[in-house]
Design goal:
Layout (H helix, E strand, L loop, with lengths): L11 H6 L1 H11 L5 H35 L2 H37 L18 E6 L12 H7 L3 E2 H8 L5 E2 L2 H19 L3 E3 L4 E2 L1 H6 L12 E2 L4 E3 L4 H6 L4 E3 L4 E10 L18 E11 L4 H18 L4 E5 L11 E9 L4 E10 L3 H6 L1 E4 L5 E3 L1 E8 H11 L7 E2 L2 H7 L3 E2 L4
Parallel strand pairs: 4-9, 8-14
Antiparallel strand pairs: 1-11, 2-3, 5-7, 6-7, 9-10, 10-16, 11-12, 12-13, 13-16, 14-15, 17-18
Helix pairs in contact: 3-4, 5-12, 7-12, 7-13
The protein binds one RNA strand of 90 nucleotides through α3 and α4.
Length: about 425
RNA sequence: GGUGGAGUCGCCUAGUGGCCGAGGGCGCACGCCUCGAAAGCGUGUGAUGGGGCAACUCAUCCGUGGGUUCAAAUCCCACCUCCACCGCCA
C-alpha cells in the first residue's frame, strides 16, 4: 500500500488548521459546506488506522528477523506469533486503505478554494472589470458570422453536418487561412514573450484527465475511447499541465504555449448556439500555460490577462473583462478572468479568452513540485490563458464587416492573409 | 498485430526468498590538502507521509497493480513503457 502519495490531493494540514477557509469557499460557490466536517472526520480515522498499521508492521519486521536466526521450538513459537501478526497487518492495512480511498473519493468532489476577492454567486454574478473599445454602430443591417462566412467562402456548416454531424464545420479557403493566421499571431506573440512553443498530444491517459480536474462534475463533456483507455482533451491545458506530472521542477516559472485541436461533447447544451461556429465539437486553440511559485501566482495571472488583452488589441475588437463568479469557475480554478468581445448580431458580449489561476489544485493531483527556499518540495501553482480561434473568427467577421459583405482585415493579420479586405465570392 | 530482451535511490550498475535496514562506480555537495585549482583523501547524497525545538526517528516506495509466504527487489499473474527484429500501413 502507498501510504504516502495517495492523499496529497488537497493540503490536509492546512485544512486541519483552518477549516473555515474551505467552508467559506464552498459557500461562495454554492457548494456543500458539510463536506468539510466529513473530510476532517475521515482524515482523523485514516490517520489512526495508519498509525496502527505502521506499529504492527514494525513489530512484524523485527520478528521476521529473529525467525531467520532461531532454531527448533523457539523458531516454531516465533513463526506462530508471526502468522498471527501477519493476519493483523493485513487487516489494518486494508482498513487504512479503505479509509484512504474514501477520503480521496470525498476530496475529489471538492473544488479548489477560491481566491480572496472572487465575486460570490453563479453565472450571472460576474463583475465587469473594464470595457475596452466601443461597440460599433452600423449604418446598415449587420450580417451574422455564418451568413458572412458563407458569402466569403470561409465557413461550410452544411457539409460539416453531412460528414460528421451537428456542430461540425469546415473552414474553407480564406476561413482556413484566417484560422492559421490567428494561430500564428497568437503563437508568435507568446513565443516573443518568452513562452516555449508546444505541440501536445490530444489523447491522454486517465491520470492526466483526472489530475487536471476534468473528470469531476464535467466528465460528460469529455470524449472517451474506452477500448484504449484514453480521452480526447477539451483543451491543451490537460497535456500541458500533465507535461511535468510526477516531477520536481528545478526552476520556475516555466511558460509554455500549446497549439492543439480540442474536442467537446457539448452534452447538455442542446439548442444553445446552434447556428454557426460559436459552440462546436472540435476547434483549435492556443493555450498559454504557466508553472510558477504559488507566491507569484496572482501576479502571473494578471500577466496572462495582459497578454490576452494584447492579442485582442491586435485584432481591433471591442471587449470587456469580467471577473467570473465563484459558482461559475469550474473545479480547478481559484479565480478566472474572461475577455468577452462584442458580437453585434447577438447584441451581446461573448467569451473570446479565459484565464484561470488554478493555484496548487492541479499540481497536487499531478505531483508537480518545486523546491522552496528551505529545500522542501512543495506543489507549484498552475495557470492557463486560452484563445479559441472559432470565437475569434466569429467576432472578427461580424465586427469588421462592411455593407457589401466584405470584411476588413485587421492590420496585424494582413501580413498572413496578404490582403486588406476579404471580398465575397458570391 | 507477432516474437525476443530490458525497466533498481540524478546517471551506470550489483543484487535468484531472511546477512537488502539496497552494495559499488560516476556525478553532485561539504571538508582536508593547496597561494589558488586539479588530482588525492574523508564525509554526505532520493521521494512521500507521521513523530520530535533539535541531532534524530518510524512507516511506505526497486516500472504499475494484484498474488504466494511468517518474510518479496528477488517467486507467480496481469498490465505499462522502452529497445530489437518480423508483419501490416498512411
Amino acid at each position: 500500500m502507498r501510504t504516502g502519495s495517495l492523499v496529497a490531493v488537497i493540503d490536509l494540514r492546512a485544512l486541519r488548521e483552518d477549516p473555515e477557509r474551505l467552508r467559506a469557499s464552498q459557500r461562495a460557490r454554492g457548494e456543500d459546506e458539510a463536506v468539510v466536517d466529513r473530510l476532517l472526520e475521515l482524515d482523523e480515522r485514516r490517520r489512526a488506522a495508519l498509525t496502527r498499521f505502521e506499529q504492527l508492521r514494525s513489530e512484524q519486521k523485527s520478528i521476521g528477523k529473529s525467525v531467520s536466526k532461531a532454531k527448533g521450538d523457539e523458531r516454531e513459537q516465533l513463526l506462530a506469533r508471526a502468522r498471527d501478526l501477519a493476519q493483523q497487518v493485513k487487516e489494518s492495512e486494508s482498513e487504512a486503505g479503505r479509509l484512504q480511498e474514501e477520503l480521496t473519493a470525498t476530496l475529489r468532489t471538492v473544488p479548489n478554494i477560491i481566491e480572496e476577492g472572487t465575486p460570490p454567486g453563479g453565472e450571472q454574478d460576474f463583475v465587469v472589470l473594464e470595457h475596452v473599445g466601443e461597440p460599433r454602430t452600423f449604418d446598415f443591417e449587420p450580417r451574422d458570422h455564418l451568413e458572412l462566412g458563407e458569402m466569403l467562402g470561409a465557413i461550410d456548416t452544411e457539409r460539416g453536418a453531412k460528414v460528421s454531424g451537428a456542430r461540425f464545420y469546415y473552414l474553407t479557403g480564406i476561413g482556413a487561412q484566417l484560422q492559421l493566421a490567428l494561430l500564428n499571431l497568437a503563437m508568435e506573440q507568446a513565443i516573443d514573450s518568452g513562452f516555449t512553443a508546444m505541440y501536445p498530444p490530444v489523447l491522454v491517459k486517465p491520470e492526466a484527465m483526472e489530475g487536471t480536474g476534468f473528470l469531476g462534475a464535467h466528465s460528460a463533456e469529455v470524449y472517451q475511447l474506452p477500448q484504449d483507455e484514453l480521452y480526447l482533451v477539451g483543451t491543451s491545458e490537460v497535456p500541458l499541465a500533465a507535461y511535468h506530472m510526477n516531477e520536481i521542477i528545478d526552476r520556475l516559472p516555466r511558460r509554455y504555449v500549446g497549439w492543439s485541436s480540442c474536442f467537446r461533447r457539448e452534452a447538455g447544451s442542446y439548442g444553445k448556439d446552434t447556428r454557426g461556429i460559436i459552440r462546436v465539437h472540435q476547434f483549435d486553440k492556443v493555450e498559454m500555460f504557466s508553472y510558477c511559485d504559488p507566491a507569484d501566482a496572482h501576479e502571473e495571472h494578471l500577466r496572462l490577462l495582459a497578454w490576452e488583452k494584447e492579442m485582442l488589441a491586435k485584432v481591433e475588437l471591442p471587449y470587456r473583462v469580467i471577473d467570473v463568479a465563484a459558482g461559475d469557475l469550474g473545479s480547478s480554478a481559484a479565480r478566472k478572468y474572461d475577455c468577452e468581445a462584442w458580437v453585434p448580431t447577438q447584441n451581446a458580449y461573448r467569451e473570446l479568452t479565459s484565464t484561470s489561476n488554478c493555484t496548487d489544485f492541479q499540481a497536487r493531483r499531478l505531483a508537480v513540485r518545486f523546491r522552496d527556499e528551505g529545500g522542501r518540495s512543495q506543489p507549484v501553482a498552475t495557470l492557463n490563458g486560452t484563445l479559441a480561434t472559432t470565437r475569434w473568427i466569429v467576432a472578427i467577421l461580424e465586427n469588421h464587416q462592411q455593407a457589401d459583405g466584405s470584411v476588413r482585415v485587421p492590420k496585424a493579420l494582413q501580413r498572413y492573409l496578404g490582403r486588406e479586405v476579404i471580398e465575397p465570392v458570391r
